[in-house]
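In the current project phase, we have settled on a layout for protein records. One protein thus recorded is set out beneath this paragraph:
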Amino acid sequence: MWETRPSVQPSAPDYREPEPPAPAPPPAPEFVDLTVPSDAVLGLQIERTVSSELARVEDRVDARVTRDLRVGDRIAIPAGSTVRGSVSEVDRGGRVKGKARLAIKFHTIVLADGTQLPLKTDPVVRESGGAAIGGAILGAILGGGKGAAIGGAVGAGAGTAAAMTNDRNPATLAAGTTVTVRMQAPITVTVQKE
């Protein structure tokens, strides 16, 4: 018997569309270093409540930067950056000791890309009765040198008044409290050129 074989088609050359050329890579980003001076002022918002009643020295305290910190026309530390600190002093106060006192120092700033930079700030001090030491900073922001003297006097007066009442309430920084701290040392931040 005869076998039937499948018909053979002539082979066509293997033709493919040429691939379009790869797009040129974007230019490498350029960066610039910005130095934030030692007297710069950071506005911060406390993330969780800290109280002299429960806090211990070295307990972690986180805050968020409330407004952009600029060097010239560039943003060095954007609003929303995390600032980490720790409790540096706790005095629970009482009848003999007087008013309660709580102090926090911030030591690290964490930028949006995860970069961590060492930070040195004046302490944030809170005393029972709501008196906060550091009126000089607020005065300096509002009125420069003269404002600093007035702010310092107001802060000292409030602290003295609280001491005379022998307040036994805890010193507290509630979540959401906004504070202002002055940097004690400059820091250098690397940012992308615009």
Remarks:
- Residues 145-165 have pLDDT under 50 and may be disordered.
- The helical segments are 135-164.
- The CA atoms of residues 13 and 19 lie 18 Å apart.
